[in-house]
Every structure is written in structure tokens, then in C-alpha cells.
Amino acid sequence: MHLKKLITHKMKISKSIKNITTLFFLFAGCISFAQEIIVDSVKTKKEVVRTGKKQKVDGIIATVGEYLVLDSDIDKAFLELSSQGNSIKDITRCQMLGKLLEEKLYAHQAIQDSIIVKDEDIRGSMNQKIDYMVEQIGSMENVVKYFKKDTEEEFRTEMFDLLKEQRLAAEMQRKIVDDIQITPEETRNFFKKIPEMERPLFGAELEIAQIVITPKVSEEEKQRIINKLKDIKKEVQEGASFKTRAVIYSDDKASSSSGGFYKINKKTSFVKEFKEVAFSLQEGEISEPFETEYGYHIIYLEKIKGQDLELRHILMIPKVSESDMADARGKALLIKKRIEDKEITFADAARSMSDEKETRANGGTLINPQTQDTHFELTKMDPELYSQVSNLKGDEVSEPILEEDPRKGKKIKLIMVTNRINEHTADYGKDYIKIKELALKEKQINAIAKWTEEKIKESYININEDYRNCDFTNNWLKK
Fold first, then answer.
1. pTM
2. Which of 59, 186, 207, 175 minimizes the C-alpha distance to 109?
3. Cβ atoms of residues 279 and 266 within 8 Å
4. What's the pLDDT score for residue 83?
5. pLDDT confidence tier of residue 431, bands split at 50, 70 and 90
6. What's the CA gap between 152 and 130, in Å, rounded?
7. What is d(CA 78, CA 346) in angstroms, rounded to the nearest whole number?
């Protein structure tokens, strides 16, 4: 496969299997509220009925299995791309329809393959997105109006359906490529096939290490939080609403708007301490305050349904005082001085004095979340991290940097650039990991193409006459 096509396809795969991160643009442009599931073929139905409302079939341009594509979905997809700063002048409606058909095919086949997507996971993700929207627009009422829905319930229902479809499609793609591996021999052959003049240019890269000092919260502040949670528990036992108290007091933004609600079982990826307390409760019981890495909680167990618990919780995060922050900054300055005086190396200081367990054992070295290696390409680096390291020279240690972790609160960190790699043409020896990734992506693309070809033959697909002259990449018209 030509390298430019490979890189384009690579971007397409990585984007399609990611969770949605650009929330506002997602719902301003991408939200396809009309992607209903139908039971009968549209050829024998004149109307599709959903949630008591009738929708005319006039806008339906394609059907894949039980999923519909509306003409307006193409408009919304174009709007999403343009709202994110992408050029759409060279993208045709036929090409955009082809992309939407792929998404429907993934979701349709996920259902056929009995891929499970838990409603509680979708609901948790949805609540986070709605919280963000409310924060941006000002109120839930404004959000509902912005997306031209009649009620909050209608908005939530259709948003839930969309997110579930997207998750199904993502899980189906993962299933297709998860077991695909690449050998060193395949990587070598892939690299040899690239003409020397077409080998990719890798930008300048940095390797970065950090030492994190977490301010120690005072015992008085911890006790204040515990006492407040005990007061809330007492109020609820005397008749107050736990749900209302969670909305008012909980620092867990993912669940506060829904009154702290979660549905979990023993396999749910919550921290151990939380699950231990939750599964020790009886229906209707409220726990005593307990601590996790996120702060202090109380849990109210509403119902036990087989292996599942329906519960509400309140999280309160202790506040760090100015004196606590000053102590942490002072500790960081002492570590910085010891490194500069050659008493200890940055890596040894990280191993013995950093409070960040994820990087401590590796001498503070950061892992790039995009590539899973230690290299950060300057042009693709997170802007905040770039601003912190761009002016550092040689073995210079940064001044203490204040950073606020949305999960764990404020922290102080020291940063050092441990290695600089200049811009260069791909070299098999130096860039093996990146070349291996490109080779793997090509193999995954080929597997997806083969899978798509097979599933198109097996699936019910109908394309409106207006789009039957499209020159699709895939054989959607089954010619």
C-alpha cells in the first residue's frame, strides 16, 4: 500500500476506535439523532415509529441491517469536520455516505456477534458529556434548546442511543484487529517496500522525565470532610434525599448530575476500596465515610439485582491549604538543588522521592499516551506539556510547576528533557517501533478491508436511487 494512503487509513482507524473527546463539536455537528433501529425493511414501511413519534421515510438514503442513514446525517458529518477546522472541499457526499455506511455495518455486525456494551458504561459517559455541555452553555435547559429537542428526556434518550451505536461500532473494530500481530520479518519487508524517496519524515522528538510532589492534606481538613459526610448521612437517615445531597455536594462530576448513581458488579473497573465497601452493604444502608485515592466517599446502596448493585455515592475531595502547597514547593526546590549540585541524578531522585507511582519506578520517564513509547514529537505534543519543556536546555531541571489533576487535585512537579532527537528520515534501526506500528496498521487495514467485503455480501444493504451512481470504495451496491 502506498505510504500516503497508509497514513490516511491509519488516521481513520485510530480516530474511529477512540472514545469521543471533542464533546461540543460532537453534538453540534455529528449527532445523528435520526439513526433509529427498525424491524422491517423500509421498502415495506411508509413510516418508522419511534418513541411515539412518526418520522417520514423521505429522508432515508440507505439501510444497513437494522440501521438507517438519513440525508441529513451527511450534512451533520460535514459540519462536524468543518467545525473542527478540517477542509471539506475535496470530500464528496458519496464519500461521506461511504464512511457512514461503514459505521453502520460495524454496529450492525456487533449486534450479530453478540458484542455486549453495558448501558451503565454508556450512561456514565453520557453524564460526563452532558456535564461538560451544561458547563459550556450554562444550563440543561439551554442544552436542550441548543439541540432543538422538546424535553430533556428526549435529548438524553437520543444521545444515549447515539453513544451506544458508536461504542458498538468501536468494539466491533477492536474485535477485528485485536488479535493481529506483526513479526520483525513483516516489519522489515514493509520498510523495504517503501521507496527511499517516499520514506516518512519523523519530526523532532523529546524524551521527558518528571518528579511529582503531592501536597500533604492536613489532618484537620481530612476530619472536616469526614464530619461533613457523617452529617449528610445523618440528614438522609432523618428523611433527606441522598440524591439531592449528591447533586449539591459530590465532587464526582461523572455522576453528580444523576444524584451520584452507578450500577456496578464485581468486574466493574472501580477502585478496590470502593467495591469492597459497596459489596459489604445491605439494601437501604449507608456506609461510613471511607477513603480512596480520589478522596472520601459515602455510599447508599439502593438495590441488589443479582450480581449488580444500584447505588449512589458522594465524593468529597479535601482541599489543600496554601501552607500545604508552600511545603510541597519547598520540597521540590530542595530536590532540584540536589540534582543541580550533582548529589543525586534526576532518575534516582524520581525513584526515591516522587509521589507518582506510575513513573517512579522508571526514573520518572513519561510514556506518550498516543504511541505508548517514550518519544514525544514536538509538533504533536500536548500544548501544555510543550510550554513546560520547550525552553529547557541540556540537563536543565525546570522550576517547580503547579498542576491541577482533575482526579487528585493540585500537585507540584519538576521536569527534565532527558533526550533530544532531531528531525530525520525514517531509519529502520533508530525508528523500529514507529515503523513496526505503521506495518501493523497496514496489516489491520487489510484485515478490515477483507472483513468489510465479506460482511457486505452477507448483510441487508439498500441504497437510495439518488446515490446509486456513487463510485464507492467498498462494494455497497453489490455489483
1. 0.54
2. 175
3. yes
4. 65
5. confident
6. 11
7. 49
